[in-house]
């Protein structure tokens, strides 16, 4: 038996080798930074203006929200093509309930979320318990809900929404400190977030060291955290000079933290990875694989509904076109973020960063006035390049 | 010499599969390669046929007088080396003729000449003695006939060296005889064959030369034509030590009945009229190791899977008791809760998540024990995995290694650790030492003995009779879904088991 200890090997080879072995994780972060710097330069500084940063969050919130659910679906070994249509359908449902029927917002929102879960449950039922490939079930769902939104809106746009509904997306958290500009709350949140991240990172390092796990070299840890901290402080500083923290940013951050926790720390999350990694072995280990698959689809439906509400609130109207082809952006974000098509691997943070990469490119190219035709081509190539990079690295290891 | 493989060494992550193996095959002979599971026979053949391309191993291959460096299977096939694998590589939905000429179609410019294809197929089928029409779908044929189609396919490529990996493993006695006769017939026509087989009587019948491989090294090459080569001699070379020392000693002290099955019946999941397990009853006492012997298809794995959360079959009836109390084994999680553990036959596809770490595999079947209200405590989880790593002597730098980088024996220990962590009363071990090297086997036997010493009831399913004889207190012999006999350790011998199987 000859075994090579990768940990000892890394210690010998130093930081360069460590980065090389974790090229995917670092590559993603650097790719996002590189893309941001590139567009910042070519747009003559427009990209990182306070108003545009705020816009970036508002524009991409629904993609990020759905990417959280899509990551779980893909890790579980499935795919959901219906999320764009479901998102549009829920927006339409909200518009009909609130604008046409005059129901209170506080009633309409929970109803919409429950309907979203119901849609996920039906699709998940066919996938999990009847073993119909998710590609087919959700392709059907995509057609069905695209049609139903058209029918619900009778082909018209319905709006505008009352202020209380719009606040879901375009509202801002009032400054507790009573300042107008700069918004002290935004800056305080930035500082607190940086401190929290550092604390969590150091705690994890201490834990790794206790079990003799070779973590990243300390210099690299500092560098990476310095970059993330600088970015966080920069963004919150900029936001503070516009209108402060958007509501939707807060819900995105809270959701992301919750899903990171669920995927990395809970038995539920662990079991989803196990099912995606080897469904038969998971089943013979006493895991109820069908139920888990079902739940990932229910969860996806819930998040697609939330995304639908956020999207409708931002546009202040529900249109039959809403959500068209959005599922592809969501799926692309998850794969750019490093998830594997065959299931079992992928990270929430990766999916969120992947969504931001897509978002910054969309936004930057729009500012530059690049036509939608070229935008699609470029996004397609970026997706292919990211996945190629993954596969290339895997083959190199083998 | 038609073929010489010299000093072949092939390494996988974590294991040296072949260590300086040499093999010499004369033109026109049938050369048998024998060895235990995991000895390296299949790896050697994959090196020869280019599945592992030149450069991925050390050593050299001399074929037909010249040094050969095969880049892939196509390369070796062009030189007339055809390998027929254990798992047949036919497309079930295509016809015999289409399968035979797959990738090698008769015709020109991509247009298939069907009359010519059928004419040639008929010729080939006649050669191998298969009476079927060329248009018959392969899925409609039995395994024995499919094997003949594979050979016909090899003949269509002008084979010079035919390699058969366990060709009779899945065949009935009559089909096996027909296949061996065919091999002798091909030999008369000048085709050289290499046959990998566990069945020593067959080896003795057809082989001109026998090479024994053990633990990735050549042990002996013997001329078998004179009739002086005995099966005992082959076995001794294969196992390398006397039976007495291959199995650790154990205090055999049986306690109360822990596990009991009464009138267990299982039907085939798709074909409901097929009864896979018929009215079967058994008892296992604390501290006992009970073996189940039988041929492939006897229903041993089906029995274990049907007991373990109804993971196999339908219309399951019968009663299961643990410590005299009826238990609900209707789902896997209930079976685990009742105190049952099942170590699967196929650890890679059913036992492990290969892309995950040792730690995560060990905790998988009992995650709640390392979690508080659904939140995993990683410190506890790591400690658990670390404890098993040490107590089962899993050879790895740490529990954060991915299991796919471990050797077969260490992977099997991870599977055992996973089930030990569920603290079972009853362990069903299905081929617990398949495909692992001799040293690791000995360690697995030690673990099994420790379990029985701790008062667990152990059921051991194995196709390796020496292993059953060396480890078990009692052996049930199974055939066609029934126990056809029971032997105590004192009564049991390979002959006694075999005669019970064939008594039908």
Automatic annotation (TrEMBL), chain A:
Residue ranges of the TM segments: 26-47, 53-74, 81-101, 107-128, 135-154, 184-202, 222-239, 245-262, 292-312, 348-368
Function text: Part of the binding-protein-dependent transport system for D-xylose. Probably responsible for the translocation of the substrate across the membrane.
Record keyword Cell membrane present: yes
Record GO cellular component, one term: plasma membrane
Predominant place of localization: membrane
Subcellular location: Cell membrane
Region forming the signal peptide: none
Keywords assigned: Cell inner membrane, Cell membrane, Membrane, Sugar transport, Transmembrane, Transmembrane helix, Transport
GO molecular function: transmembrane transporter activity
CDD domains in alphabetical order: TM_PBP1_transp_AraH_like (cd06579)
InterPro entries on file: ABC_transp_permease (IPR001851)
Name this protein carries in UniProt: Xylose transport system permease protein XylH
Entry keyword annotation includes Transport: yes
Membrane topology label: Multi-pass membrane protein
């Amino acid at each position: 038996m000859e075994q090579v200890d990768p940990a000892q090997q890394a210690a010998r080879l130093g930081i360069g080798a460590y980065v090389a072995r974790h090229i995917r994780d670092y590559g993603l972060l650097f790719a996002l930074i590189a893309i941001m710097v590139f567009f910042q330069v070519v747009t003559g500084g427009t990209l990182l203006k306070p108003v545009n940063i705020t816009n970036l969050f508002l524009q991409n919130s629904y993609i990020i929200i759905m990417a959280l659910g899509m990551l779980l679906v893909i890790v579980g070994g499935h795919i959901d093509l219906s999320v764009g249509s479901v998102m549009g359908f829920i927006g339409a449902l909200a518009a009909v309930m609130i604008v046409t029927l005059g129901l209170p917002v506080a009633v309409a929102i929970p109803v919409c979320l429950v309907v979203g879960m119901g849609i996920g449950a039906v699709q998940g039922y066919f996938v999990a318990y009847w073993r119909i490939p998710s590609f087919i079930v959700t392709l059907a769902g995509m057609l069905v809900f695209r049609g139903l939104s058209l029918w619900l809106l009778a082909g018209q746009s319905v709006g505008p929404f009352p202020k209380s509904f719009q606040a879901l997306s375009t509202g801002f958290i009032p400054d507790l400190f009573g300042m107008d500009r700069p918004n002290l709350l935004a800056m305080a949140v930035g500082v607190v977030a940086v401190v929290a991240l550092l604390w969590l990172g150091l705690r994890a390092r201490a834990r790794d060291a206790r079990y003799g796990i070779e973590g990243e070299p300390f210099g690299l840890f500092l560098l990476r955290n310095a970059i993330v901290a600088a970015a966080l402080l920069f963004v919150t500083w900029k936001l503070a000079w516009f209108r402060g923290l958007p509501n939707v940013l807060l819900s995105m951050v809270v959701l992301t933290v919750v899903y990171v926790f669920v995927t990395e720390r809970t038995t539920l999350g662990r079991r989803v990875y196990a099912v995606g990694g080897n469904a038969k072995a998971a089943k013979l280990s006493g895991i109820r694989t069908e139920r888990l698959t079902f739940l990932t689809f229910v969860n996806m439906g819930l998040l697609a509904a939330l995304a639908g509400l956020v999207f409708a609130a931002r546009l202040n109207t529900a249109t039959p076109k809403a959500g068209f082809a959005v599922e592809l952006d969501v799926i692309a974000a998850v794969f750019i973020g490093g998830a594997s098509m065959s299931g079992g691997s992928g990270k929430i943070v990766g999916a969120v960063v992947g969504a931001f990469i897509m978002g910054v490119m969309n936004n930057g190219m729009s500012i530059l006035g690049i036509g939608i035709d070229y935008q699609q081509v470029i996004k397609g190539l970026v997706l292919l390049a990211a996945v190629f990079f993954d596969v290339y690295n895997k083959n190199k290891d083998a | 010499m038609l073929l010489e493989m010299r000093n072949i060494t092939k390494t996988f992550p974590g294991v040296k599969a072949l260590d300086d193996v040499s093999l010499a095959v004369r033109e026109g002979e049938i050369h048998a390669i024998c060895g235990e599971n995991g000895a390296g026979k299949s790896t050697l053949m994959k090196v020869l046929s280019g599945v592992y391309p030149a450069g991925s191993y050390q050593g050299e291959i001399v074929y037909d007088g010249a040094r050969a460096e095969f880049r892939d299977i196509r390369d070796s096939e062009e030189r007339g080396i055809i390998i027929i694998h254990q798992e047949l590589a036919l497309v079930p939905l295509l016809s015999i003729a289409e399968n035979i000429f797959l990738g090698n179609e008769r015709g020109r410019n991509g247009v298939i000449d069907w009359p010519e294809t059928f004419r040639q197929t008929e010729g080939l089928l006649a050669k191998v003695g298969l009476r079927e029409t060329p248009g018959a779908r392969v899925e409609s044929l039995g395994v024995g006939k499919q094997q003949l189609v594979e050979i016909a396919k090899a003949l269509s490529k002008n084979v010079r060296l035919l390699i058969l990996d366990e060709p009779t493993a899945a065949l009935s006695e009559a089909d096996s005889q027909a296949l061996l006769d065919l091999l002798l017939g091909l030999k008369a026509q000048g085709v050289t064959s290499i046959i990998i087989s566990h069945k020593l009587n067959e080896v003795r019948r057809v082989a001109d030369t026998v090479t024994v491989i053990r633990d990735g090294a050549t042990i002996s090459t013997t001329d078998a034509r004179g009739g002086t080569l005995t099966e005992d001699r082959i076995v001794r070379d294969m196992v390398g030590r006397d039976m007495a020392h291959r199995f650790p000693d154990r205090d055999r002290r049986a306690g109360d009945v822990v596990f009991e099955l009464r009138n267990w019946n299982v039907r085939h999941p798709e074909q409901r009229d097929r009864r896979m397990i018929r009215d079967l009853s058994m008892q296992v006492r604390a501290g006992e190791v009970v073996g189940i012997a039988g041929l492939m298809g006897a229903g041993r794995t089906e029995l274990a899977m049907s007991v373990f959360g109804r993971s196999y079959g339908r219309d399951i009836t019968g009663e299961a008791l643990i410590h005299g109390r009826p238990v609900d084994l209707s789902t896997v999680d209930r079976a685990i809760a009742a105190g049952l553990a099942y170590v699967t036959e196929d650890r890679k596809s059913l036992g492990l998540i290969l892309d995950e770490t040792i730690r995560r595999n060990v905790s998988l079947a009992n995650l709640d024990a390392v979690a508080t209200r659904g939140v995993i405590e990683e410190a506890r989880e790591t400690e658990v995995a670390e404890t098993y790593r040490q107590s089962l002597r899993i050879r790895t730098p740490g529990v954060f290694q991915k299991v796919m980088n471990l050797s077969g024996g260490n992977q099997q220990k991870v599977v055992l650790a996973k089930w030990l962590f569920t603290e079972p009363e009853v362990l069903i071990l299905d081929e617990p030492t398949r495909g692992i090297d001799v040293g690791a086997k000995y360690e697995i036997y030690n673990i099994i003995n420790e379990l029985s010493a701790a008062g667990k009831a152990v059921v051991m399913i194995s196709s390796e009779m020496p292993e059953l004889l060396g480890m078990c207190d009692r052996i049930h012999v199974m055939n066609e879904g029934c126990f056809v006999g029971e032997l105590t350790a004192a009564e049991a011998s390979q002959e006694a088991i075999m005669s019970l199987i064939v008594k039908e």
